[in-house]
Amino acid sequence: MMSQKNNSSFDKYHTYLKKVMPHSPWVNSEQINPTFLKVFHSIQDHLILAEINTDNEMFQNSNPKQILFAYYKENILSILIAWPTNHPGFISYNIRTACETLLKLVYSHLFPQKSYEEVSRTSFRHLKEEIKSSTSDVTKQSIIDLCLLYGESSKQIHGHSVSYNDDDLVINNYFENLFDDVKKFSKAINELTNIYFILNKNLFRFSFNDLRVDQRIKIQTSISSEKIHLLR
Q1: Residue 66 class from Cβ within 10 Å (0-12 exposed, 13-18 middle, 19+ buried)?
Q2: pLDDT band (50, 70, 90) for residue 184
Q3: Nearest C-alpha neighbor of 50 from the set 232, 229, 227
Q4: Which distant-in-sequence residues (6+ apart) come within 8 Å of 52 by Cβ?
Q5: Which of 114, 87, 119, 117 is nearest to 102 (CA)?
Q6: How does pLDDT run across 55-80, given as a tens digit for each residue?
Q7: DSSP E strands, 4-78
Q8: Are 155 and 129 in contact, with CB atoms under 8 Å apart?
Q9: DSSP three-state, residue 168
Q10: What is the DSSP letter of 165?
Q11: Any bridge partners for residue 165, and if so which?
């Protein structure tokens, strides 16, 4: 069930977009697109847990993880900037970047002796193989799913190029109709959120018992019951 607070947050977000992107097809309609609402709530759930993670010791006992986590939150927030531009390549880029940063965050967690520079220079292929060989069961499957999502997002980036023509203002195309495969992109964002929640429980050892009362209340009142279930 979506909370009243989350709906209020969406209203603020939607109102802001009307000011800064009034011609976006996601905001210039009288009716709010239900897929847009789902995307927002998925990102909102993601960001709320991420903010709680900021106070978690797991992200405070390592400088590499602190840096990567800051980047990761920015990556997730950037999806909310990319979506109303109606540019699927831009959205895919932010999803892929978030996947890669999360993978590096997992890598840093598994190999705490490595510096941020070492982690940041590690190629995607080595990240994937070393993490897979160091994990098992649900965590390993989540990493496999994360890598698949990374690969699919990479394909989407390269599959949405356009050519410039002086006789046709190409940018107008992004404001006329919603991009193709909207539900596919929404599903990818929801999947990334699910992976993050699953990793919190099974790898980062998230525990409700370790939370402050205000943090528990925030989760219970602001995160969907579907996502809370992934943490228990």
Answers
A1: middle
A2: very high
A3: 227
A4: 211, 215, 218, 219
A5: 119
A6: 776 666 678 888 998 999 999 999 99
A7: none
A8: no
A9: strand
A10: B
A11: 168
